[in-house]
Design a protein that fits this description.
The complex is a heterotrimer. Chain A is about 75% helix and about 0% strand. Chain A is mainly α. The longest helix of chain A is centred in the middle third of the chain and has 38 residues. By secondary structure, chain B is mainly α. By secondary structure, chain C is α/β, with parallel strands linked by helices. Helix content of chain C is about 35%, strand content about 20%. The longest helix of chain C is centred in the middle third of the chain and has 18 residues. Classes of the chains: A mainly alpha, B mainly alpha, C alpha/beta. Chains in contact: A-B, A-C, B-C. At the A-B interface, helix 1, helix 6, helix 7, helix 8 and helix 10 of A face helix 4, helix 5, helix 9, helix 10 and helix 11 of B.
Chain lengths: ~325, ~325, ~350
Amino acid sequence: MRYLLKRIGFYLLAAWVALTLNFFLPRLMPGDPATALFARFKGTLGPEALEALRETFGLTDAPLIIQYFTYLGHVLQGDLGISVAYYPSPVLDVISSGLVWTILLAGTAVIVSFIIGSLLGVAAAWWRFGRIDTIMPPLSALLGAFPYFWLAMVALYIFGFQLGWFPLGHAYGDGVTPGFNFAFIADVVRHAFLPVGTVVIATIGGWLLTMRNTMVSVLGMDYVNLARAKGLSPTRVALRYAARNALLPSVTGFGMSLGFVLGGSLLTEIVFSYPGQGYLLVQAVRSQDYALMQGIFLIITFAVLGANFLVDLVQLWLDPRIREATS
Amino acid sequence: MSGRRHSAIAGLAAWADAVRHDKRAAAGAWIIGFFILLAVFGPLIVNDPNELVGMPLQPPSAEHLLGTTGQGQDVLAQLVVGTRSSLLIGFSVGLTVVFVGALIGVTAGYLGGRVDAVLSLLFNVFLVIPGLPLAIVIAAYLPAGPLTIGFVLVIAGWAWNARVLRAQTLAHRNRDFVSAAIVAGESNWRIVTAEILPNMTSLLVSQVIGGTVYAIGAQVGLEFLGLGDVSAVTWGTNLYWAQNDSALLTGAWWTFAPTGLCVALVGFGLTMLNSGFDEITNPRLRLQRAWRAYLIKRGERPGRSTPVVAAGEDHA
Amino acid sequence: MPKPLLDIRDLCVDYITDAGPVRAIDHLDLTVEPGEIIGVAGESGSGKTTLAKALMRILPPPAVISGGHIIFDGEDVCEMDDEQLRKIRWRKISMVFQSAMDALNPVISVGEQIADTLLAHSGGPAEVPDEVLAHSGGPSENPLIPVGEQFVDTMIAHDIGSDEWARDRAGELMDLVGIPKDRLDSYAHQLSGGMRQRVGIALALAMHPKVVILDEPTTALDVIVEREILERIRDLQRRLGFAVIFITHDLARMLQVSDRVAIFYAARLAEVGPAAEIKSAPRHPYTAGLLRAFPSVKPGKEEPVSIPGQPASLRTPPPGCRFHPRCPRATDICSKEKPGPTVIGPGHTVCCHHTEK
């Protein structure tokens, strides 16, 4: 329990750091932050509206510390400002429209990739010097070296554009009504297949290599030797007595690489015009919509922190030593 | 002093060994060598990459080996010229993230106590904050260009190196030669630079390589988003323009395929160099290899149980 | 003379390195009789642990067995395939590892680790009758095997092969080594060093083996726990009648416990003989040196005297007798010829050119 409280404390701290970064970024940058933030509003908004916006961001003449708390207060109430690119929608509304798609895409991709990659890593280590161990590590290193979004472009070009097997973009087609019905779900799967697939292909090698290397050292441990000496069947030795232990560092790595994979997944969204945070992010960059950009950064950070907490729970379940050390 | 030079040289020699004895490390070294030559001399050979040389979106031909872009520039010239800045930023960022990581990680690991607690917290926080979105937000406020890209990539990427180097420093700190130096009253600075860092030489090299892989990939990503200087010629901006000119939907694969392949080859080469080095220096992996070769030479299949080899040579 | 339970003939084990093979066991001949305790002693690096793991063919890479035979109950372990090995491992020959902390899986409860072993070998009820016959029908070597029969009875009485059965049986085994049953759900890190080592012993006894190898089972423990463990092993060995191969570098401790003793030096056997004889009249100069180095054997009589020089390197072993550079009796022949085994009494063999005192 103390372990979980400690982790929660850490994530709260990380969230606070992200918030603070967000607050200071426009203020640290060259020039007047308000001008930078609202450059695009000039002409579209009257002076009163601009003043209201300044208020949201705490960009008043008040001392910095007051501005800071004004800002924190607004964020805690869910007020992230107004989007320029999607004027006059509030940033939070814009973001939440795409959040589910990003989580679907990145979440599916990262889980599928982790499971397949780790299994292949176990197999490569178990049949060391075997076919999987000879072919997969260099192959997956090569695939992993391609930029995610470039693989996405190639996949889209071949399977979408040339062969026409998959749609060219978006999360679902115009012909289906969103809801819990088969046609819609099937269409979502069809649209998600290529983006998920490219992220999986690009990231699978990392899991494979991590798992293979830890598994090779775990296989040299005395407890695996004992399991073998006990006359257990080979599959039992491999999965129960070695793979489970080898999984622990991979799970730690899983948490830490979530942010990285998510970054790649955002770029993939752009190629597929997938309506998630990545797509919004590029709109924000193009129209210099700083409020939206910063809002996305915050929300994504919070999502990653939440996911990391889930990983901690899994870790706790897998490793009795953590439970012990903290009780 | 000679001790320091000796362990640093040993660290580098291990790398030379890897390149000499491991096929993958050698392949990686060849690939990287080729691209470095291309980055240095390539731009002297090809034409001005910004020159409009023909009709837009011409497929590869004898005249333009990789076709033309949506603006009518030569793709090959853009690719070659882009190599220089992409590699330059890649290696500089790779070096810088390791430098910053070493500064913070080694300080934390060596000094320990409260300093360690604070610095560890710092890099752990930066590890969970997603790097690419952070880089994007910062880059968007700064003037577009290679310095901005490099800066944000360092901000988003140093924490990992700090974490690894802290752990490594902790391991070294408890070794006898460091304890001896502390007892002998050497200054902290000298112990770190003369006793600890030289012993981590090979790890540092491996981290620079890993950092470079990260930097090249992330740089291409940021520029693809339009956060670079879009008028400059780099691998990332090449892809940005390909996407912007709807290369995909017009079927102009030659505008994006070659660049992506080059990015991947460089990343692959660097990764191979690193994993080949691992294979050579990890004693367990190395002995397993020797063991396997020995068995195969004697017609035995390496199995799960201790193998029985017919008649071994007799030793005195 | 009855056939030995375990007959090691001319065994060689090599570790493969970049610079070629290094011999860790060099032409070893050794027998183990049913129900005896044989001690194996030698400095670290002399090949003791290698022998233990080689007997079960669980030596990890880069080791290879490069010659000889390990005849166990009439069958050569060196000729078995993985499946045959799986069947004799633990059922006939089991082992207590040097460090239970390393040998117990940290993320699986000790109860499950014992239960796993039982389930792996239960093979479902169909296979049991053979097992029953083998143990209770034939004339057994040792008339005192109540726990062995108890084991068989348990198998018949219960739903053998079920998780519940395995758990019950695991609990009994814990009981046998003196650990309360409620520790079944504990993990290795939650137990004390002595308890962990006892779990290791419970594990080793799970299948009622004929030979149990103890690989320095008490090195990590303090003296009191060590004695407690050794007494426990003696007691169980008397009740269950298994043979023990007891590996240690602590000659004094070994002489207290063993019936026979084998002394290793630099991958070779120096001397093997009855414990009492070795203790009172060692014939190999190395054995004599070891005895002087552990004076507790003859309390109060002598100061400990260490053997001069460094243990021989296995990479570049000295020619002839490997002990000659450190040997007070060494003559010219010692550096030239490898001393063959000389039988100097019943069950007492010495490899030395100068066995006369």
